[in-house]
Every structure is written in structure tokens, then in C-alpha cells.
Amino acid sequence: MSAVKVIAVSSGKGGVGKTNVSVNLACQLARRGRRVLLMDADLGLANVDIMLGLRPKWNLSHVLDGKCVIQDILLPGPVGITIIPAASGVKKMADLGTDQHAAIVRSLSELKDDYDVLIVDTAAGISDSVVTFCRASQYVMVVVTDELTSMADAYALIKVMNRDAGIRRFKVLRNMVDSHDQARDGFERLNEVARRFLDVSLEFAGFIPRDPYLIKADSRQQAVSDLYPGAESSLAFRKLAETVDKWDGPAGPSGNIEFFVDRMFDTESVADATAGVPM
């Protein structure tokens, strides 16, 4: 694979629209001509395929079990994006260890197609898998709403990522807000607390407004960016994609997918973890 920009989309709690953000950002980047790979990294409670009404025959659990290879599970999505589906309701996938995470990511390097962007839709919260995938990504985008619990859990997520993974820079996307002023105000409140108590830098990535068309699209299991391209939320996702497109990508030979593995684990652990995984 050629140089690829890797973005982890995370949230402190569920129900804040994280997967919606991942899917629609992927769609809008594809509309800009980018080749986008969307990985469902909520490994035991997958929902990207559910959100889009897809029915994958195989998923990441089958790759780990040796029943197929990574190429076999790729799903075509809207606007030409490619999706890597995870398992839903498979407890062992939610409890994977470091070696299994390494095996999953290492298998990505065997993909033959080139991608410009890899979006990693992590699980909500602060599980080991979330820390692992965020550590490996170039950018971590934290999705947060105006709910007090969302704000508190976003702060907790950032704190854990900083302490356990050494991540110091975060992008913050405000979701389900009523105005730009409300979005900025919420960001500034979170930023002020983080600046006082943590050694981190937060950057405002933008906001997605409340939009009834987004709810309609969800009920029809389609991306709002695809079904209602002129909707207010679709325009906001388009603006977000324009912003993300300006973020620096990887440079030099480390820009391929192997850097994703290298940032997760040392060379020995990767070799051990991938020894028995079919590629």
C-alpha cells in the first residue's frame, strides 16, 4: 500500500454518533476523490455494516480463525468506500489481546489496493483495543456531544490516551449541536479543563448539527451524505472532509500501512502474533 493517512474516530461513551461520523466522513472524503478504507474496530459489537444495511458473509473474526484472508471480507460501501467489517455479538472478539490486535492490523498490509485514508471506527470508551488502535493512528478524533456525561467521558478518554498511550494531540469534533457558537463553547470548556490538568493539545475539528435528515437516513440504513447530499448535516460532513484533507499525511517509506503496526507493537511481538495468521 502507498502512503495512507490513518484516523481513529473515538468517543468516551456510546450514543454520541461516532460511527455515523466515521461513515459519513468516509463518504465525503471519497467524494473528494480519496480512496477510503473504513475499518470497523468495535470488534465484538460491530455496527458499520448494520448502519449501512450490509450483510457480510465474512468478518474479522473469520480472518483470525483462519477461515479466510483479509481480501475475502472487504465490502463495497457507498460512494466507492471499502469497508472492513467486524463481528457483532461475538464476545471473544471484544476480549482480544495484544497479539490478536497485532494480527488484525498486520493483515492489512496484504491488501493489494492502494488507499489514501484509513478511518478506524473504534469502540466507545477506554478498553484496551481503543487505546491500541488510537496509539497506532496518526490522528485521534474524539466525538463529543453537549451531554455532561459525554463531556466527562471524553475528558476521561483523553486522560487515559495521554497516560497509557502517550498521545498528546487530539482533534475534537462536536456532534449533535445547534450552532457553531454552542460547538465552540463546548470545545473551549473541554479544552480549558484539559489544558489545566493534562499535558495535551486539543484542536477544534468542527461540528455536526442536529438534523432530522440524518435520523431519516439512519432509519433507512444509509449514510446521510449519500441519501440526502444537500442536508445540513451532509454539508457539515463535507466541510469536515475538507478539513481532514488538509491534515498532513505520512511522509517517506514509513507512510505505508506497516507504520500502523510499528506504532502498535515492537517488531518481536508483531512477528510472534502474525506467525500463524493466514495472509
In brief, what are we looking at here?
This protein has 279 residues and is α/β, with parallel strands linked by helices. It has helices at residues 18-31, 48-51, 60-64, 70-73, 91-94, 98-108, 128-136, 148-165, 180-197, 212-219, 224-227, 232-245, 258-264, 267-274, and strands at residues 5-10, 36-41, 75-76, 82-84, 117-122, 139-144, 169-177, 201-209.
Describe this structure in words.
The protein is α/β, with parallel strands linked by helices. It is 46% helix and 17% strand. It is built from 14 helices and eight strands. The protein has an eight-stranded mixed beta sheet, sandwiched between helices. Helix 9 links the parallel strand 7 and strand 8. Helix 1 packs across helix 12 and helix 8 packs across helix 9. The longest helix has 18 residues.
Which terms would index this structure?
279 residues, 8-stranded mixed sheet, globular
Assess the beta-strand content as a share of residues.
15-25%
Assembly classification = single chain
How many angstroms does the end-to-end distance come to? 15 Å
* Biggest pleated-sheet summary: 8 strands, mixed
Q: Helix fraction?
A: 40-55%
List the helices and strands and how they pair.
Blueprint: E1 5-10, H1 18-31, E2 36-41, H2 48-51, H3 60-64, H4 70-73, E3 75-76, E4 82-84, H5 91-94, H6 98-108, E5 117-122, H7 128-136, E6 139-144, H8 148-165, E7 169-177, H9 180-197, E8 201-209, H10 212-219, H11 224-227, H12 232-245, H13 258-264, H14 267-274
